[in-house]
Amino acid sequence: MLELPEGKRHLVTFTLDGEEVRGFAEPRMLLSDFLRQQLGRSEVHVACEHGICGACTILLDGEPARSCLLFALQASGQRVETVRSLVSADGKLNDLQVSFRRHHALQCGYCTPGILMSSEAFLRANAKPSEREVREMLSGHICRCTGYAGMVDAILETAQTRAEQP
Amino acid sequence: MKPRSFTYVRPDDIGEAVQALERWRDDARILAGGQSLVPMMNFRLIDVKALIDISGLAPLAYIRERNGEIEIGASTTQAQLMGWAQLANRAPLLSAAMPHVGHYQTRSRGTVCGSIAHSDPSSELPLCLATLGGSVVLQSRSGTRVLAARDFQTGMLSTARRPEEVVVCARFPARAAATGYAFAEMTQRQGDFAICAVAAMVSANSIRLGVGGVADRPTVRDWPALADGELDDALNDFAWDLGGTDDAHATAAYRRELVRRLGRRVIGEAGNARTA
């Protein structure tokens, strides 16, 4: 049985966007804060800190998760993906990101990293989603700029483009 | 919006989880999906000195059918239940309710048993468990005991679980012969807390309706087969007996109207599903 006492910092290692990372965290440290403060990954956006808004959504072992509802220690030995994983090594946006830009699926962009990660996981699992399914998936995020219409179009278009690829 | 300090405990099996719980008792909380618990910790609504993380206990992540019941282990996520190939066939009520449980992004972590143990009065899973007449299995060092859903949930966010007990699984009765099931709820946004949620189970000579989001716990009522006019009266009586209150989301009168209307709708749908 592993027991990590309060008030002490413990070693945490996991795979972040394909690279091994390490740092130290007290049990109470949220994964969102660990990513931002210990690892400098400010693309993980934090807003509500109680799991409602979805801005901090990352993928944990390929599944979408609120990083504000996970403790850093829980990521030990796991695979974490942030929005940075969508960008290619030479800095090119992926097809979903390009589609978001084309459809004006973001305005201030604060909610966008989380929505991109949810959408990416969703599209991996649902190759041909209906508009209703896309809207249900997006109900787990709050965007106060766009009204979501551009996101729905961008996600459906990406699904279609990917389905047409050989 | 950060939790206060706590000791993180990760047991290697259920025996160790029970052992840790025995030691920390009321100062400990079991962490499964954390989708309700961690927000409460972030808000400092609850005080946790030790968090016992069972989310990684693979032997507790299972769905199996035994003796006419679908047994779901304590670390089984809501997404795993939704993805269970037999869900629509063996548990039509759960199949109808699951899309309303949280969001796509929370079901990947949130667990079935965690939702039941948390016992929010507006949660869908405790409502389904109560309507189906299911049970909860609790384990402590002195052994296991099985509590019927109506004995387990005692009020808002409160259960008959003793401090040294861990919920190890929940048992949902599987689809009964010649019975139809239906589920509906009213929310402000898909996946939000239900202002009123209803679950119906209808056979040739019986009607059962469970209601969540109105009283302090899911409440179930049984009737024999009723004529149309009798059903309206029965639903009206039930709506008043639930004793809903006004809050920021809805008035008590609006909730009563939802019980009458959604109740009628799901009883009709369940009746149709039976004959189909």
Tally of individual domains of chain B:
3
Number of DSSP helices of chain B? 11
Give the overall pLDDT of chain A as a whole number: 97
The biggest sheet of chain B amounts to: 5 strands, antiparallel
- CATH class membership of the largest domain in chain A: Mainly Alpha
Run of helices and strands of chain A: EEEHEEEHHHH
Number of H- or I-type helical stretches of chain A: 5
Give the number of DSSP strands of chain B: 14
Structural class of chain A: alpha+beta
What is the CATH superfamily classification of the largest domain in chain A? Answer: [2Fe-2S]-binding domain
Extract low-pLDDT stretches of chain B. Answer: none
Largest sheet geometry of chain A: 5 strands, mixed
Mean pLDDT of chain B: 96
Spans of chain A of at least 5 consecutive residues whose pLDDT stays below 50 are none
Task: Describe the fold and architecture.
The complex is a heterodimer of chains A (166) and B (276). Chain A has helices at 31-38, 95-102, 112-125, 131-138, 149-164, and strands spanning 2-4, 10-16, 19-25, 57-60, 63-66, 79-81. With 166 residues, chain A is of the alpha+beta class. Chain A has two domains: 10-85, Ubiquitin-like (UB roll) (Roll); 87-164, DNA polymerase, domain 1. In chain A, strands 3-2-6-4-5 form a five-stranded mixed beta sheet, with helices on both faces. In chain A, strand 4 (57-60) and strand 5 (63-66) form a beta hairpin. The longest helix of chain A has 16 residues, at 149-164. Chain A is elongated and about 50 Å long. The N and C termini of chain A lie far apart (48 Å). The model of chain A has no long low-confidence stretch (mean pLDDT 97). Chain B is α+β, with helices and mostly antiparallel strands and 276 residues long. Chain B has three domains: 7-53, Uridine Diphospho-n-acetylenolpyruvylglucosamine Reductase, domain 2, CATH 3.30.43; 58-173, Uridine Diphospho-n-acetylenolpyruvylglucosamine Reductase, domain 3, CATH 3.30.465.10; 180-275, CO dehydrogenase flavoprotein, C-terminal domain (Enolase-like, domain 1), CATH 3.30.390.50. Chain B has eleven helices and 14 strands. Chain B has helices spanning 14-24, 37-42, 78-82, 87-90, 92-97, 104-107, 112-118, 124-132, 149-152, 228-241, 252-275, and strands spanning 7-10, 28-31, 50-53, 63-66, 69-73, 135-140, 143-148, 153-155, 158-159, 166-173, 180-186, 196-203, 206-212, 219-224. In chain B, the strands form four sheets. Chain B has a five-stranded antiparallel beta sheet. Chain B has a four-stranded antiparallel beta sheet with strand order 11-12-13-14, sandwiched between helices. In chain B, helix 2 links the parallel strand 2 (28-31) and strand 3 (50-53). In chain B, helix 10 (228-241) crosses helix 11. The longest helix of chain B has 24 residues, at 252-275. The chains are: A alpha+beta (166), B alpha+beta (276). Chain A binds chain B through residues 1-7, 10, 26-28, 30, 33, 49-52, 54, 57, 60, 63-66, 68-71, 73-74, 118, 122, 135-137, 139-141, and chain B through 1-12, 16, 19-20, 34-35, 38-39, 42-43, 49, 51, 53, 55, 79, 99, 102-106, 108-109, 189-191. Strand 1 (2-4) of chain A pairs antiparallel with strand 1 (7-10) of chain B.
